[in-house]
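Example record used in the benchmark description.
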Amino acid sequence: MPNTIFERLARGRPAPAAEKPQGQPKELAEALLGWLERWPKPIVTPADIHNDGPRPKYNRETAIRSAQILVAHGHLQPIKGPRGGSQWRIIRESLTPK
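Model output (structure tokens):
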């Protein structure tokens, strides 16, 4: 028998839902690549991806991981940002179909 009011109230509640995964890294990178085709600036930052990027929302870690995948495929080039932060130059030639 529950001893406190909180235990009694929690008795009928379902278990908290686990966080849904935001997607596989490859799928997130593909969505980011499609978004980069429409991004008007030559440089993109993790904050740009988080604030304006494709859905699902990217947090800093997934933005960086997705950008690293695109770096490996030649779509982005890492550059030093102010205060040593992450930034990438968009390689527009690799975005256009040949």
